[in-house]
Amino acid sequence: MLNPCNIEDVITGIQIQNFKKFDNADFEISQPVSLFVGQNNGGKTTALQAITLWSFLISLWRIRKGGGTAKQRVGASITRAEIHPTPILEIADLWTGRRVRKEGTTSENVKIQITLRGVNNRTAEPWEYGVEATFANRELLYANPIDVEKEIPEEVGRIFHLPPLSGVQTEEPKVDPGAQLRAIGEGRPGEILRNLLLGLSDANPAGWSKLTAAAREFFSVEILPIQYNSAVDPHISVYYRPVVSASKKQYEMEISNAGSGFLQFLLIAAFLLAHENAILLIDEPDSHMHVFLQRAIFEWLQKVAIEEKAQVIISTHSEVLINVSGLENLVTFFGSHPKPIKAKSSQLISALSEVSPLAIISAEWKKKIIYVEGETDRKLLIAWAEALEHPVSKILPETFFHSCGTNDSNAAKQHFSALCSVTDSSLRGFFLRDSVLKKDEGLPEGLLGRYWSQPEIENYLLHPAALIRFVENCGLGGLFALPKKEKAEKYLTAHLTPAYVMDPHGNFSDLGKKKGSDFLEDFLKQLDIPSGKSDYWRIAQTMRPEEVFPEVKKVLDDLNTFLS
Fold it and tell me: 142 and 12 in one domain?
């Protein structure tokens, strides 16, 4: 594998002040490929826009204030319509909370300041350069370097931001590089996809070969040579055909007919291969891609980034990308400030055998974790909370759950201990376990245990009235539902005690050692209702508040206390 240090110049950190979401954010960036991860509207795209805006403002200042006046401190005037890296309705929209003047004043400006740090890998010399913007009016701002005496770094002209694909046009005329950058900046990269492919094909045959080889490997298609002649047709067309055996008929299609995942790949690949020694900011490259492809294409992206001497910064929600990326390459966007994962490196290797990078991120963010046997348990708890309109119903859907896949509490203890060993947070845990004869001893500090009195969580679904209602909901309704309802009533009468049928809460012990999952499986099978364990939460969803068992209410109370 090529050494990442082959990349000549890289960004190593960024400070953002008074720009959109960030009043003051300062964080480090790894190389050659780093991931921005976090919740929706957490600031990932804003951070990418800040890096692009840094490049844009400095470039425009150099053009407009270059020559003999380069050292003057008067900012370059830039109109709202020109700011394509981050389209806005008014200039004030660039400022955090739209605060363009300091509080209590009408003349003292709040300045947007964006400072990038980096290193030149050829000389090992670090660099730092900042730009600031001052509000003029709703259509105008002034921009200039924070220190006009400093030399402008080479990176200014090598930063490109690629937003997610938004579809391609059926006809695409050839446009100049400036128009391409504007389309990209305004979130319309699909409108210039063929232009990117044509440019790569003409200017970089080796890069074009890499792209076509990857298309064949990942999508089993052959991209045909691009034929473009402006004298014949002003529009660019790109054709491909499936790779099939010689005995099958081959057919050609234009890329406007291609699937969104393939188009997303073409966009990313063309952009990366067309910009050697560049700094590429890619928004959600995994969007539209099947989970099986995400890992393979991400690994290809890492390899090609090094070959092309490019630094790549990716904004993503993909669990696949997060879990295959090293923790040192992640910047998390949770809360008000971005930050890298600060895992204790001495324990990281052993911890990663127990926990995933995504789990570490979630632990850093949420600070609390609930351990359950499987996904069914999580869904049941949420459904019961909603049926009761319990206060915890507003918290549970966003809670960090971990499915152990077993009722053995050792799995929860090992996972929790591993998380605690690599996070700086004071993590707390809560695990739910089915009935056991002997309670666990020696729980790690911060981990609470709670035990159901019944053999399984599914036992708390065995309320006859709720089961009959569930059966009715699964039927055709009206007269057609009567036979199925009657059959359900007969089954419950035959398999439960009369006392339990009359009062399940008061006679819960009548279930004995029955396992709720076995009971429900046979019950639904006899009624020809196609419903598996993963659907049992729908039974909980039909339960009325008075039908939910008291023990379930107590567990929800405990969870509410734990999470509050």
Answer: yes
Total domains in the fold of the chain:
3
Is 217 within a domain?
A: no
H-type alpha helices, 446-502: 464-474, 482-495, 498-502
CA distance 253 to 260: 14
Domain extent at residue 45: 4-167+267-340
* Phi, psi values for residue 483, rounded to 5°: -60, -40
Asked whether residue 41 falls in the same domain as residue 84, the answer is yes
Residue that is written with structure tokens 């790894």 in the block: 30
What does R_g of the chain's alpha carbons equal in angstroms?
30
Sorted by sequence, the CB contacts under 8 Å of residue 482 that are 6+ apart come out as none
Buried b (16+ CB within 10 A) or exposed e, 182-204: bbbbebebbbbbbbbbbbbbeeb
Judge whether residue 363 has pLDDT over 70: yes
What residue type is 38 in one-letter code?
G
76-86 pLDDT, tens digit per residue, is: 999 999 898 88
What HEC string does 278-322 produce?
Answer: CEEEEECCCCCCCHHHHHHHHHHHHHHHHHCCCEEEEEECCHHHH
d(CA 351, CA 345): 10
Top mean pLDDT of 35-44, 298-307, 374-383, 532-541 is at: 374-383
- What CA–CA distance (Å, rounded) separates 163 from 451? 48
